[in-house]
Design brief:
Layout: H1 3-11, H2 25-44, E1 105-106, E2 135-136, E3 172-176, E4 182-186
Antiparallel strand pairs: 1-2, 3-4
């Protein structure tokens, strides 16, 4: 077997457990080291035929197969929830109060006295009637309403920004080529 034949077989992707012999000790050593490194790499990764063991693989008989690729999107909105309730209630309370008030009283007093010089010569022997009323004040109490203040119940709106963090998932498609290399293509948004 010649050196050119062995190199061609290796480049074509044929796997052989037999060591490659070229007749040249230097090339034989290089090929054996290359084979050892390939075997070491296969220990860390699953063989190509066993990479998709978690999904059931079926051989397609159709001319065209379509695989849907999707992703999750984090949707964030706001909803209103009921918080604390504030209630204003007006009740009437009674408080005893007192105020001082001055009351006036007028009495008619009848007294007799000696005539004065000014009253001399007035008609005396005629009929005459004079009336005078006495008066007095009594307490008259009433109530009136005065507004002291107004209590307003209103809503004040404030806004704040919150950051929502989460993890979203998406599909990735891995295409296996005959060379054994996996190509990763991301779904376009």
């Amino acid at each position: 077997m010649s050196y050119a034949t062995n190199v061609t077989n290796l480049n074509a992707g044929t796997r052989s457990d037999a060591p490659v012999r070229t007749g040249n000790p230097f090339f034989d050593m290089l090929f054996s080291m290359q084979k050892a490194s390939q075997q070491a790499l296969t220990v860390y990764g699953a063989p190509a035929e066993k990479r998709f063991t978690d999904t059931a693989s079926q051989q397609s008989t159709n001319a065209v197969e379509v695989m849907s690729v999707g992703e999750e999107v984090l949707n964030v909105g706001a909803r209103t929830v009921q918080g604390n309730t504030v209630r204003l209630r007006r009740v009437v309370v009674e408080t005893p109060v007192e105020k001082q008030v001055s009351l006036r009283e007028e009495k008619v007093i009848v007294e007799r006295r000696k005539p004065t010089a000014a009253s001399q010569g007035q008609d005396v022997l005629t009929e005459k009637a004079v009336e005078m009323n006495d008066s007095f004040e009594v307490v008259d109490a009433w109530k009136s309403v005065h507004l002291l203040e107004e209590v307003v119940l209103r809503k004040e709106v404030t806004e704040r920004t919150e950051t929502v963090r989460d993890t979203v998932r998406r599909d990735e498609v891995q295409v296996e080529q005959p060379t054994g290399k996996a190509l990763v293509r991301h779904a376009k948004a």
